[in-house]
Amino acid sequence: PGSVVTLGETMALLTTPTGGRLRSGAGVPVGIGGAESNVAIGLARLGVRSTWISRVGDDAFGALVTREIRGEGVHVAAHLDAEAPTGMMVKELRDGRPWRVRYYRSNSAASRLGPDDIDPRAISDADVLHLTGITPALGSEPLRAVEYAIEIARRSGTLVSLDINFRATLWSAEQAAPVLARIAGAADIVFAGPEEAALLLGWPPPTGGSTVEHGEELARGLIGLGPETAVVKLGALGAVGVTAEGAHYAPARSIAVVDAVGAGDAFVAGYLSELVAGASLLDCLRMGNVLGGAVCQQPGDWEGLPTRAELTHPLPAGDVVR
Ligand code: KDG
């Protein structure tokens, strides 16, 4: 059935409840969030074997993060760091929707993630290695970890998947573009939003929403960097995938968006779940859209990821607000 290994930082995620304000001392539920573990959880819920490699602090948040991810059926390979804390992220809601996200992650345990944290067998045994552009933004050691992981994957015939996930709060566009373009060149599949694709290509950022045609143009541009497949995620419009053989477009179902954070990760989980099952590019895109939509219909970055059983009974579309 295939397996996926991923590596990256997962943080304790504090979400201010609707109506409450953090500055006034509102009580906050503590969950977890991290792009790569979101993908790993999405895959595990669909019955795909997934492994998450990381580093967490030897603290309560580290215990929460590892227990939660393990509890979702993901194999956790996370070293405990006695000298650095688990990172934290605060998500403030307004009217029940995400309004502002703030990181408290500099010098976190996962910012010290390095090649030594990686068991090469975890990568060589997997069908797909999934990476994101967040990890290289965390520091020079995490960047080395990403490069080392790619090297092992290359040697063992493991497919390399990269979601650009540019985070402007972690590094500048000028810093990120050359690094991410280089990693994209070493990957087999690259996922990007229109702005991210434009950033890598040095093209002007899209103004307003991107069209399907523009998405295809951007995906073709990304192919030029080296990957065999490029997927441009178009949100409510769906996604475009391009290979040397041609372009495919899969439209998304209209749904009411409650919380779009994590939709990109869900899309990747859906896509990869079909990829490891040997599905066509179009079917991979379709499943990506299904998962991306499902996660938007529930609050939380990953909580709305469906199981196989839930896939056959999707939530009704609801009142379409987008
Ligand atoms: O893609 C969703 C992520 O943004 C979130 O879960 C946290 O990994 C995260 C990050 O670094 O932004």
Structure description:
The chain is of the alpha/beta class and 322 residues long. The protein has one domain (3-9, 35-84, 113-308): 3-Layer(aba) Sandwich (UDP-N-acetylmuramoyl-L-alanine:D-glutamate ligase), CATH 3.40.1190.20. Helix content is 35%, strand content 23%. The protein contains ten helices and 13 strands. It has a nine-stranded mixed sheet with strand order 5-4-1-8-9-10-11-12-13, with helices on both faces. Strand 11 (229-233) and strand 12 form a beta hairpin. Helix 1 (35-45) crosses helix 8, helix 6 (194-201) runs parallel beside helix 7 (212-223) and helix 8 runs antiparallel to helix 9 (281-296). The chain is globular and about 55 Å long. The model has no long low-confidence stretch (mean pLDDT 95). The structure holds 2-keto-3-deoxygluconate.
Summarize the structure.
The chain is of the alpha/beta class. It is 35% helix and 23% strand.
Question: Which characteristics define this entry?
Answer:
322 residues, alpha/beta, UDP-N-acetylmuramoyl-L-alanine:D-glutamate ligase, nine-stranded mixed β-sheet, four-stranded mixed β-sheet, 13 strands, binds 2-keto-3-deoxygluconate
Order of helices and strands: EEEHEHEEEHEHEHEHHEEEHHH
Number of helices in the DSSP assignment: 10
Strand order of the largest sheet: 5-4-1-8-9-10-11-12-13
Name the average pLDDT. Answer: 95
Structure summary, number of beta strands? 13
- Report helical residue fraction: 25-40%
Query: What is the approximate shape?
Result: globular
| Share in β-strands | 15-25%
What's the oligomerization state? single chain
